[in-house]
Amino acid sequence: MKEKTGAFSFAARVLHWLMAAMILAMLFIGVAMVASVSALHEWLLHIHKPLGIAILILAIVRFAIRLRRPPPPLPEDLPMIQQLAAHASHWVLYGLMIAMPLIGWAMLSAGGFPVMLSESLRLPPIVPVNPIAFAVLRQLHTYLAFLLFITFLAHMAAALYHGLIRRDGVLASMVSGKRAPTFSYPAIGTSEADRHRSKQKQAVRIGK
Ligand code: HEM
Predict the structure, then answer these.
(1) Are 141 and 149 spatial neighbours (Cβ–Cβ below 8 Å)?
(2) Which one of 98, 122, 152, 174 has the largest count of C-beta atoms within 10 Å of its C-beta?
(3) Where, by residue number, does the polypeptide cross the bilayer (predicted)?
């Protein structure tokens, strides 16, 4: 059943920050891995595979939590284009958090390589061996890694914009779990007239 509390749960916040660190690490490990040829390549690959599968499992858990408890609404005065961009980028991030590990797993399966998570734990192949599919999935893994990195950067820039410029409680709602207000406080540098309009709007909302 959906709970409508208008705040992020503790589990959602822990998963958000844990997965942000894991995904960033995965992007750098991936690039370092393909750029190295020595024993370092093997060592990084041994981290890359289990960490990627852990991201897949956590992304599914996180998606289930999100369906059960929707995130707090964005401030009502956020321009429509920014609201759309925020929602679109969140869905792209969810899609890539699930697609990237699946593509990595499918790519190794198509290449006929074993997907070992540890010395003894081997995942079953999810697609039949096929060199063409391997080549296509290998390319896709690279292109989607770029898309993930760009979306990640845009997401971070938007978070800083909310936290430092708009100061509308959106970033704080993911940091401390406080419910974000549906209106925003005037940002630093706004004119006296804007500040007055914002106060009036706020007063109307709380019924003064
Ligand atoms: C969120 C999850 C993942 C991310 C962000 C990620 C990211 C990356 C990146 C950035 C690269 C380098 C791409 C390039 O420069 O061509 C890469 C390569 C690779 N990834 Fe992933 N990956 C993920 C999951 C997985 C999983 C689950 C597997 C396998 C089970 C996997 C297997 C590989 C392999 C085999 C390579 C190529 C290694 C090589 O050619 O030396 N990845 N990955």
Answers:
(1) no
(2) 174
(3) 12-35, 47-65, 91-113, 143-164
Instruction: Tell me if 41 sits within 8 A of 33, measured CB to CB.
Output: yes
From the CA of 157, how far away is ligand 1's center (Å)? 25
Q: What was the pLDDT predicted at 205?
A: 45
Q: Say which residue, 122 or 193, is predicted with more confidence.
A: 122
pLDDT in tens, 108-140: 999 999 999 988 999 999 999 999 999 999 999
> What range does the domain containing 184 cover?
10-205
Distance 123 CA to ligand 1 centre (A): 16
Cα of 106 from ligand 1 centre, angstroms: 11
| CATH code for the domain in which residue 137 is found | 1.20.950.20
Tokens of 93: 């991030």
Q: Is 2 inside a domain boundary?
A: no
pLDDT in tens, 156-181: 999 999 999 999 999 999 998 876 55
Neighbour count for residue 190 (Cβ, 10 Å) = 12
Query: How many whole angstroms separate alpha carbon 94 and alpha carbon 56?
Result: 10
Mutate to test the pocket of ligand 1, among 18, 22, 31, 33 (most ligand atoms within 8 A of CB): 33
What is the pTM assigned to this prediction? 0.86
